[in-house]
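Researcher: We are triaging several targets before committing to wet-lab work. For this one, the compound of interest is flavin-adenine dinucleotide. I'm pasting the protein sequence and the ligand SMILES. What I need is the predicted three-dimensional arrangement of the protein with the ligand bound, expressed as structure tokens, so it can go straight into our comparison scripts without reformatting.
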Amino acid sequence: MNSTGPADDGPREGAVVASGARRVRWSNWAGNQWCLASVLWPTSESEVARIVERAAAAGRRVRAVGSGHSFSGVALCDDVLLRLDRLDRVLGVDRDAGTVTVQPGITLRALSEHLWTRGLALANLGDVDLQTVAGATATGTHGSGWSLGCLSSEVVSFRLVDGSGRVRVGDPTGDPDLWSAGRVSLGALGVLTAITLRVVPAFHLRAVREPRRVDEVLEAWPELVRDLDHVEFLWVPNTGWALTRSSTRTDEPVRPRRRRDRFHQDEVVDNWWFGAVQRVGSLRPSALVPLARRLPSAGRVEFVDRSHRVLTAPRRVRFVEMEYAVPFEATEAAVRAVQQVVAGLSTPVVFPVEVRCVAPDDIPLSPAHGRATTFVAVHVHRDHPHEEYFTRVEAELRALDGRPHWGKLHGRTAEDLEPAYPGWSSFRAVRDRLDPDRRFTNPALRRVLGP
Ligand SMILES: Cc1cc2nc3c(=O)[nH]c(=O)nc-3n(C[C@H](O)[C@H](O)[C@H](O)COP(=O)(O)OP(=O)(O)OC[C@H]3O[C@@H](n4cnc5c(N)ncnc54)[C@H](O)[C@@H]3O)c2cc1C
């Protein structure tokens, strides 16, 4: 199992490539994590159960992967790796209960499209929608919203195959401890085979994207997050500017961006620009800062569209990322600390620093457990070094009682994470009950969850 600094030249998008001895190579979206494993594509829950049972009898390890959108090594496996691409169906919609039940491998995009045709939607989404529902909930994937928790907080119940191959049901009445812990599980409790999520009536969002002075945004942040349904800002390193993205529910009909604006925002500003700047920066690092200063020239854009089209956008430039969850009250301190780190780096950074907020929840391993949370994310092009930047930012945000995003790069260990999570021991108790032999562990989990 490997994690590399600069991206390796292997396959992308979790692609598999045949290698010598019946094992195949799997790598994540960013290309910074890869492993060689025996890959299986189960098509039913009973098949998953049989695979795990056989693996248990043979003393082998098993891990399920989603779309490989985690930057950390959480999904890696050097033994039996389960791809759940063929478990990607919607199993049922319960309108009265306001829920949808899906197989684990469905992507957020496919689910959003399916729900839309039935007049329904997920209440919130992150930046992209290519992750699977199981993978996204396993790491506490989140969007932004003062009154909206991470995707895992919408989990009503689930089914999973435990370390012995037995099917368990996690729901608040039948097995409340499993339900509580299994919503953010890092894949450490078993293989999820079905997930029931809360849904809401389909809605439109009126979106505004505009550059603003970062000091002004920070000052207004407590009001902005309460006034707008979704708001985030991207501070452009080495400038006083932030690109703000906000959206609020509206009854207005769809008024999409003009094709030119959409191309400019989603392709030129969010994608092409970063690729091009990065290429120039590789040749002449001193050119990065002047180029970064041009980014805020992207003008103000306003449009109305379906919720999932507003909340997500394509990401074509491959990068690596670290994201920290700090208490909401520490937002300004966190951003100022990152600004200081950026100012002192030996290699200039150009990727914007993303700031979002999320409602508190009661999930034992959720980074937003028990507190209104601000997420601060730092990114670097995958071919550029990130160690100095991420290590220094991590030290600053950890000092603010920060907790790392499980799917993103970080240097924390079980020993120092345990005190940061009040629900740590309840998660461990469920793990000991469901997977006493640690059928589902890997080196990344041993580091962050302990043996
Ligand atoms: C371009 C990009 C944008 C992103 N934007 C955001 C964002 O806006 N907000 C955010 O919070 N995160 C974001 N992320 C991070 C991403 O959402 C998480 O890392 C997420 O976990 C990835 O989901 P996945 O389906 O790719 O799962 P993987 O990365 O493949 O796996 C993640 C974890 O889920 C486990 N898992 C997968 N399937 C199962 C199963 N059936 N049963 C049990 N465990 C399972 C794996 O073992 C692993 O531990 C982004 C990542 C990228 C690359």
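Researcher: Any quick observations?
Model: Residues 259-283 form the longest helix (25 residues).
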